[in-house]
Amino acid sequence: MSTKDVYAVGVTCNYGMTIAMIKNDYTLYHLGDHIYCCARILARNIIGGIKDQLADQYLNQNQNIPVKKAQQLLWQKYPDIATDPFLLAAQEDNRQYLYAPQLDGSASNNNHIAVCGRGTAIAKTMNWLVDNWDKDQNLKKSEQMARVALKNWDTFHNRTMDVIVLYKRKEDAPMDIDDPNE
User: Fold this and answer.
1) In the predicted model, what is the mean pLDDT of residues 98-103?
2) What is the domain extent for residue 121?
3) CA 72-123-160 angle, 5° bins
4) Distance CA 10, CA 122 (A)
5) CATH code of the domain covering residue 135
6) Across residues 101-130, what is the average pLDDT?
7) Residue 181 resides in a domain
8) CA 137/CA 12 separation, integer angstroms
């Protein structure tokens, strides 16, 4: 892997959020309710354990998972979170959250845009996204921005990407059905 790549991008708008990731290395994990994380495929067992723990603590008790609790559990249980590009996307009480831990131990502090990757590509991508982002943009523009960001800051330029849209308002979204085999 290059040290100058972006592996996942999150972009919000009034209608929802778009998450784009490099398909070969990353996948989107559904932790419950409206909480998702984009992490390496190799983290499947760790993320699965976190999902099970959240389900036992909250979903099996007919309670919603608080975003902060999911974030804390991820930071505790995922040992590589500080060094491995990772993105958390969530919606709670009509608010959207994006977190991307950085190598210095901080997390992205922009709830509208998050970038995970390595090297100087993170700052360049964030600057480009901030300059082009508008809270009134539609989901199509958010998707285009996420795709452009991944394409422009991917050293290999030929890797495929997955793009997922999470709708903010229930009336805008198709029926949300979880796969029981996840």
Assistant:
1) 78
2) 6-172
3) 80
4) 12
5) 3.60.20.10
6) 78
7) no
8) 9
Looking at the 3D structure of the chain, how many domains does it have? 1
Handedness of CA 108, 99, 147, 133 (dihedral sign): negative
Query: HSE of 15 in the Cβ direction (CA atoms, 13 Å)?
Result: 14
Q: What is the pTM of this model?
A: 0.80
Q: What rounded mean pLDDT belongs to the chain?
A: 82
178 domain-assigned: no
Q: 125, exposed or middle or buried, with CB in 10 Å at 0-12, 13-18, 19+?
A: buried
Q: How far apart are alpha carbons 126 and 29 in whole angstroms?
A: 23
Dihedral sign, Cα of residue 85, residue 103, residue 109, residue 36: positive
In a domain, 180, yes or no: no
Strands (E) across the chain are located at 6-13, 16-22, 26-32, 35-40, 87-92, 95-99, 113-117, 161-167
